[in-house]
Design a protein that fits this description.
mainly alpha; Growth Hormone, Chain: A; globular
Length: 225
């Protein structure tokens, strides 16, 4: 797919995290007063709308999302710089931590609902911190076209760069992955339950954590260390 063997199975794992982005943003935008927990560009714009008093935007939710995302990214960045582990082990630890935060959010949504202001902000904070950490680790892993939370440059590169069709197809993968996550998340919200997208996201994160840890322990894993 245009990435060679330098990254081993990391691209597949990061595609899984991109699906997680679609799931949690579907939950947050559709259930928590129109706020993103992974897409900070949207939240910055929403915050501007809210400060202008336009569009009935919840300023507190956008602000909490931005701050929590920044804290999560800072924590993820510090964890990545503290030592130089195998990239598979780093991803495993990050995905496991993220899974815990998402499970806590799912339990909160399951037990208290999402209507109260304090509950809503708690959920925004938990999920935005989790996604900030995911974004920081994805930057550290440095797999091309797989930031897992931002698609603007990926879409631009897909149509603007004069590259081979194999590269173009690879750039299409994260777009389809995030779309699929959002589609499934919306369907789960409509037909199953409000916390359902979070439970599925947590399961995917747990699977990524276990799979990346196991892959990093294999003898050939030094090739993508």
């Amino acid at each position: 797919m245009g990435l060679g063997k330098a990254h081993g199975p990391l691209p597949i794992f990061l595609v899984g995290l991109t699906v997680v982005t679609g799931l949690v943003d579907a939950f947050s935008y559709l259930s928590l007063a129109h706020v993103f927990v992974a897409n900070m560009t949207g939240n910055v714009v929403f915050l501007g709308f809210g400060l202008a008093g336009a569009g009935n935007i919840a300023v507190d939710a956008s602000l909490v999302a931005i701050l929590a995302f920044a804290l999560g990214a800072a924590a993820g960045g510090r964890a990545a710089m503290r030592r130089e582990p195998h990239r598979g082990h780093l991803l495993a630890a990050a995905a496991a931590t993220q899974a815990v935060l998402v499970v806590v959010a799912a339990v909160v949504a399951e037990t208290t609902g999402v209507s109260g202001s304090a509950t809503r902000l708690t959920l925004v904070g938990l999920l935005a911190a989790a996604m900030g950490g995911q974004n920081a680790i994805a930057r550290r892993l440095a797999v091309p076209n797989l930031t897992t939370t931002v698609l603007t440059l990926t879409v631009t590169g897909l149509v603007a760069d004069a590259t081979s069709w194999s590269v173009r197809l690879w750039r299409l993968v994260p777009i389809v992955a995030m779309l699929s996550g959002a589609l499934v998340g919306g369907a789960l919200l409509r037909w199953v339950s409000t916390p359902a997208p979070l439970w599925l996201a947590a399961a995917l994160l747990g699977s990524v954590a276990a799979s990346s840890f196991a892959a990093a322990r294999r003898p050939l894993s030094d090739g993508w260390r």
